[in-house]
Automatic annotation (TrEMBL):
EC main group: hydrolase
SUPFAM superfamilies: RibA-like
Function in brief: Catalyzes the conversion of GTP to 2,5-diamino-6-ribosylamino-4(3H)-pyrimidinone 5'-phosphate (DARP), formate and pyrophosphate.
Pathway: Cofactor biosynthesis; riboflavin biosynthesis; 5-amino-6-(D-ribitylamino)uracil from GTP: step 1/4
NCBIfam families, per the entry: PRK00393.1, ribA
PANTHER family: 3,4-DIHYDROXY-2-BUTANONE 4-PHOSPHATE SYNTHASE, GTP CYCLOHYDROLASE II-RELATED
Cofactor binding note from Swiss-Prot or TrEMBL: Binds 1 zinc ion per subunit.
Reaction it catalyzes: GTP + 4 H2O = 2,5-diamino-6-hydroxy-4-(5-phosphoribosylamino)-pyrimidine + formate + 2 phosphate + 3 H(+)
UniProt keyword terms in alphabetical order: GTP-binding, Hydrolase, Metal-binding, Nucleotide-binding, Riboflavin biosynthesis, Zinc
Taxonomic classification: Bacteria, Bacillati, Actinomycetota, Actinomycetes, Pseudonocardiales
Name the UniProt record assigns to this protein: GTP cyclohydrolase-2
């Protein structure tokens, strides 16, 4: 198990490994339209991230968790060339409906880690017919350099025993387990395709191994 340079801390009868220094974490209540969350802001790997905790999760098993990669165009502006904004909304709604869970919002993941400027440049190539992978590699950029270690660290900080991970991406499961987090099960988070993102979803399914069965049901345009 990766220890992230943590130290042992005694709090009452408990002893646990501290995942962050006190100056790198801040917590407060956050009242939203969906309800009140515990907002846990934390610094890791040069970025400031956020975990939204709903209900009781401490020392619990099978906690519903979503690890969400930052996507300004989808999360904020509702871009339809990806499903990110819809997944963010659906994950928060599911957590509230269940009564407890955690959403971890990881910064520095824009465009699978290449950054916002590079991501917008790939959009130009995608509009010309390239898929999401080739549009990056043709510019000399990596396909995916996201690091999920900060998510594992905050789950350790929150003392979650095991998680049910809302994801279609097997890499997230592997990353958490490599960092000592038990993934009890995977919960699909499937958004209906549209004409703007079907090529994107198809590439993620066929070339990145994401589990996206809804792609098969999308009606293909009639051949001319």
């Amino acid at each position: 198990m990766t220890t992230f340079g943590r130290r042992l801390v005694t709090r009452g009868p408990e002893m646990f490994e501290q995942a962050f220094n006190d100056e790198d974490v801040a917590e407060s209540d956050l009242v939203t339209r969906r309800g009140t969350f515990r907002a846990v802001a934390f610094r890791a790997d040069g970025h400031e991230h956020m975990a939204l905790v709903y209900g009781k999760t401490k020392l619990r098993e099978n906690v519903l968790v979503r690890i969400h990669s930052e996507c300004m165009t989808g999360d904020i502006f509702g871009a339809m060339r990806c499903e990110c904004g819809e997944q963010l909304d659906a994950a928060l709604n599911t957590i509230v409906r269940e009564g407890n869970g955690i959403l971890i919002y990881l910064r520095g993941h824009e465009g699978r880690g290449i950054g916002l400027v590079a991501k917008v440049r790939t959009h130009v190539l995608q509009d010309a017919g390239m898929d999401t992978l080739d549009s990056a590699t043709s510019l000399g950029l990596p396909v995916d350099v996201r690091d999920y270690t900060p998510a594992a660290r905050i789950l350790q900080h929150l003392r979650v025993q095991s998680v049910r991970l809302m994801s279609n991406n097997p890499d997230k499961i592997a990353a958490l387990e490599e960092n000592g987090i038990t993934v009890a099960s995977r919960v699909p988070l499937l958004m209906p395709p549209n004409t703007h993102n079907i090529a994107y979803l198809t590439a993620k399914r066929d070339r990145l191994g994401h589990d996206l069965p809804q792609v098969d049901s999308f009606p293909l345009p009639h051949a001319r």
